[in-house]
């Protein structure tokens, strides 16, 4: 994560209650991000329970429950059972329906830190998705501490990546002023034995983190559109996905062709 976003994420994890939501397509690293948070919470000797389908990582000092639909143990019932244990934090693998969403919201209101994933396009849409599921806007605006949208992109091979100067049209999706584009140095894949001639080795996450504040709460309560809430969030200091993507391209970590398909802001 960008250092600015990482600090906001850590602050959200310090809160005694609220919801931390990650979103993105399948395979975008949502669960990995949440497990990093779970390990952080467990290191503070907090009582943490996870409810998953299936359990993807084994974590010491954490109670992990696997959903089993064959015996009627779904996310809703498992979450109700977990609340009877009075944990400090709960990880729910995914909020899929209104019943689970309602219980998750209530858990967040009653002194529990709840982490989960939603399948939406971006950070702002997580708020609207909960409202669409039937949760009241006045509750959603209070319980969501932060939302993180992320995508995985390939890392350029450090051995063979090739430097070049981009054209103005290359950076238009990222910056409004392209007058100094000739001063930029970007990198593109070339291919060598180290990367099996693909030009890439490894992956990294590019994310966008929206930390809830009074302006975003008011916009959510007013049922503004996703575009309008996004404008409010950016004006409040949110670093957009495109800004964070441009940083990693500028640092030579990945290429333009890797991030362009995932731009949603």
Topology:
Elements: H1 3-14, E1 18-23, H2 30-43, E2 48-52, E3 63-66, H3 75-84, E4 89-92, H4 98-109, E5 113-118, H5 123-132, H6 137-143, E6 144-156, E7 162-164, H7 168-171, E8 186-188, E9 200-211, H8 214-221, H9 226-235, H10 241-250, H11 256-259
Parallel strand pairs: 1-5, 1-6, 2-3, 2-4, 4-5
Antiparallel strand pairs: 6-9, 7-8
Helix pairs in contact: 3-4, 6-8, 8-9
Short key terms for the protein model shown above:
single chain; 265 residues; alpha/beta; 7-stranded mixed β-sheet; two-stranded antiparallel ribbon; 9 strands; 38% helix; globular
How would you summarize what this structure contains?
With 265 residues, the protein is an alpha/beta fold. It is built from 11 helices and 9 strands.
Task: Please characterize this protein's 3D structure.
With 265 residues, this protein is α/β, with parallel strands linked by helices. It has helices at residues 3-14, 30-43, 75-84, 98-109, 123-132, 137-143, 168-171, 214-221, 226-235, 241-250, 256-259, and strands at 18-23, 48-52, 63-66, 89-92, 113-118, 144-156, 162-164, 186-188, 200-211. Helix 4 links the parallel strand 4 and strand 5. Helix 6 packs antiparallel against helix 8 (214-221) and helix 8 runs antiparallel to helix 9 (226-235). It is globular and about 60 Å long. The mean pLDDT is 93.
